[in-house]
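Possible regression after last week's pipeline update?

I re-ran a chain I had predicted before the update to compare outputs. Posting the input and the new output here so someone can diff against the archived version. Not blocking, just want to make sure nothing changed silently.
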Amino acid sequence: MSPDQIGFTLLYLGIFLLLGKWLRIRVKWLQNLFLPSSIIGGFLALLLGPQVLGKLLGLFVNSDSFWIQGILPGGVIEVWETLPGLMISVVFATLFIGSTIPSIPKIWRLAGPQISFGWAIGWGQYVVGVLLALLVITPFFGLPPMAGALIEISFEGGHGTAAGLAGTFEKLGFPEAYDLSIGLATVGLLSGLVIGIILINWAVRRNKTEIIKNVEGFSKLKKQGIMEFENREPAAKMTVRPESIEPLSFHFAIVGLAVLAGYLLLQFLIWIESVTWGAITDSAFMTYIPLFPLAMIGGIIVQLVFSKVDQSEIVDRHMINRIQGFALDILIVSAIGTISLDVIGSYIIPFLLLAITGIAWNVFGVLVLAPRIIPSYWFERAIGDFGQSTGVTATGLLLMRVVDPDNESPALESFGYKQLMYEPFLGGGLVTALSVPLIFEFGPIPFLIFSAIMCVLGLLLGLLYFGKKSV
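New output (post-update):
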């Protein structure tokens, strides 16, 4: 494939993002669900590509016809399939760049209850998932026990994490996990939005919320995903002069440096293993680790260095956010647009069982565990964790904004601090990245026991310590 053809396939991404935005503006039920344009565009690409439109047109044209691919030429899908694995490293590299990393005591004081709650929910997804795999999915449907990890990978990690693990799934002989996890991530995001709004309505009617008493406060423009005129601000700051280097180029280079640092760290770990325990045991565990969690660590290293040497504060967090958002939009459109419907159809019962189990556990967490763990503003704070643990962090932020539009509760601040201690491990962190290789190497039972211990520790800390306090 020529560079021109590759560039042309990238233009298709922009077209589907614009179509997704246009539909968000025009279709009211899409507005009420607050669906991101990238999700809508991804589904359009899936429907108009070879798996839906192409198969329908294939009933009427020859197998070598252009229309067998739908409206997407074959090369488009080939390029798109590689993009999620690349973009997720950018997303994770940007998590901490440009942010002030507070002290651990401050994080623990403000976000401790949500760390305990999120910890229990995240590890609990492994517990229910691996149990489901051992008792039902593996014996009756033939999928490996590694399928039990897909709930946390897809729900907590989202599309990016699922896409980032594609190479790991392939190496471990479970390539179907990619399509299943992308499908689960889509179900999780949709259910997070829909069930989240339902839970908010329930909480308002039952007087469980302390800030709002109705959910009708969103303007028409906000539902369309358009910033109100009075709230429009610059997307980022010009921290360097364009005649020296374009500010976007400068920040992109910083992100690239973080990804490179993560890559070098990964290669170092692989080398260490090859000359130590790997040489003795003939194992290659580190080769299964994807790049994106190491890119996150690379971002932390870059941020720590810049916090020492950047006296002029030329790293702007808002610009980093724009790069992160761009990468995430590209990731979601390309990931959803290339889901294999054949794979999901072949494993539809295990797929539905995993989805239903994950959703049920998260709803149980909000309705039963959160009021007993989070001592004050429990719903405002728990609904953010529900959105994150079912969809993505943006879903959690959106749901928190619905129940606390003016940030009157400590929900947003404690949620942000919680991410600093939570994301390096769960929700796409090291544990998420290592879960499938660990199950493959050591078996599902040891991983299940360890997950149960971690889940119980989170529950005990939340119920017996934070749940008894009033903060």
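Follow-up from reviewer: compared with the archived run. The chain has a mean pLDDT of 82. Marking as no regression found.
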